Amino acid sequence: MDESYNLKNKKKITREAIIGLGENSFKKNYYSELQTKLIDLERINSRTNALIATIPDILLISTGNGQITSLKSSSDKDFAVTHAIMQNDSVMTDLHKLIKQVMENKILSTYYFSLPFNDLLHYFEVRIQMSTFDEVLIMIRDMTERVSMENKLRDLAEKDHLTHLANRRYFEMELEKVNQQSIEQLIILLFDINGLKFINDTLGHLTGDQVIISASQIISQCFSSLGIASRIGGDEFGLIIKNEPPETIENALKNLNSELKSFNQLPDSTFKLSLSYGYSYHALGTVNTDFLFQEADNNMYQNKLLKESSTRNNLVKTLMKALEAKDYVTEGHTNRMDTLATLIGHTLHLPQNIMDRIQLLTKFHDIGKVGIPDSILKKPATLTIDEWKVMKTHCKIGERIANESSELKEISHLILKHHERWDGAGYPIGLAGNNIPIECRVLSIVDSYDAMTNDRPYRAALSPDTAIKEIISCSDAQFDPKLVTIFKQVITQHLRPQ
Question: What is the pTM of this model?
Fold first, then answer.
């Protein structure tokens, strides 16, 4: 017998020996290519294992009887997710149905589901494919990050970043869907914020943004059950409402007015919110959304014209209350200035119309300070150069506010000029001498005197004597020298403590 069959000479069992290709095998010369094939198979198997290990998806295998097992060793996270999926009866019922269909039809099937996990709703995509060994491969991919990104991109495309309402693009897309369609009961409702530009010019755009947000919240609250509100312009909003009669809209608008009234009665409100609105109604037949939108827009602006004047006056009154709340100057400040200015005016024998303007000016000259941040207005230390530039804008802000009020329009130019100096070094225009209105020259003295003799955030009050000396020293520079002489006379005769 050949020695290859001699048990005494049997060598260690190897891959070659198993397939009959050992050193002592007589088959080696005839089947050497089998060893190469086997090495190739092992290489493929190694690659497959490495590929499975690097795939981030959960891989499962289902047998013909529906028993599902994992195809790879899972991380702790994958194991927890797999366990949560396997414990969900609804998901497993759907999977078993799909596995059965795949085994019958031999085609790829895709399935999507969501599942709460670790206090977050996760989204999954499942792909189910038949293998060649009567097994079904199940690949489960966590799509949460992708879905979240898609939602963010959709929000960027269809939502307004400030109010989080739908944007104009979304509104126009919805209009396009119904345009030239045969529809019953379609309403386009438009809103416009009254006086937003005025608020932006006086209180600043940050406050204006808050007005827009407040308006959007009230509109959403009153109309969310009827349609999706969209911000279609800087101060405009729109809704497309289906299958509702005009009576429903009228009732919702009454509710809106009640909400606005409640909002405007809040004690800490720094602005009054006013909305104009108008709508158009399509009862039956083919709808022309261009015509319907224009009709709603016309009705809104008709409503706006009725409210605009009263809105502006209400805003000015609100701003005055806001100034009283935020300014460090007490109510006694304006009363003391009025008394001193009146005495100076009578000594100058000024006519009544100028006296009336002086009295208004003593009360409203600083109304523009409502547009100055508290961090600057109430700063206890010296203002920086940039902060001082902001502070000086209160003259122009005050002028804009006064121009919007029928009561203050007459003194708007005086509010603008109340910080001009006799020597021309004042602001914001740089007027000098008699080019400065007499009302402003009088105010400059009485305002400075009262400011010096009362506490301010940045210093304690000066004595009346010190304040008078300071004003006299600034005669012919900051103040009209003629008025300084009269001021000294009035203080000595009427107001200076004896």
Answer: 0.59
